[in-house]
Every structure is written in C-alpha cells, then in structure tokens.
Amino acid sequence: MAKKKGFLDGYQTYDTAGGHGNAQSWRDAFKQTMSKEDATVLMNEAVQTPHEILGISPAASAAEIKTAFRQLIRQWHPDTNQHRLAEAEAMSKKIIAAYTLLS
C-alpha cells in the first residue's frame, strides 16, 4: 500500500538546484509566525492603529478581522506585487502585525 502524501511533501522534494533557495529554509519560513512582541514593535512605528490598517471598526468580530486580513494580505502579498516589492513587503508586515495583535 502506497504512503499517503501530506500537505508539505511537495516542498520536501522541490528541486532547488536552479537557484530558488534551500528547501529547508522555505519550510522553516512557511511555519514561522510573527510574535506579539515583534508585532507590537512594528505597530509602535506605524501611524495607524491595527483596526485602521485592516480597514475594520474597533467593534469588529473575529470573523470580520480574519476576512479583512485575508483580503488585504492577498492584495499586498509581495509575490503579486513584483513591480513595487519594497512597498508590498512593508505593507504585508503591517497587515500581519495588525492581525497578530487583534487575533
């Protein structure tokens, strides 16, 4: 009987010989999350509140916070904004920090 493939099995066998990075570093980055301390430091530098960054009201529910986060991170992900990479990375960090503090 064949072994059932898991979600990350494709990453474990990904050929990085063409210069796309180390497979282990990709797996580690995939599992890494922003800590509350990192999020607090990043938000202290921001002019906006976490609610303003996500575009939600202060009384927003957990579902509304999650929906706003998913929409914004999809919009500002660096992979989809190659023409403005620095701006996309900065905005992605702000969005992740705001979500981390509110969730």
Automatic annotation (TrEMBL):
Residues 49-103 form the J domain. This is DnaJ domain-containing protein. The lineage of its organism: Bacteria, Pseudomonadati, Bacteroidota, Chitinophagia, Chitinophagales.
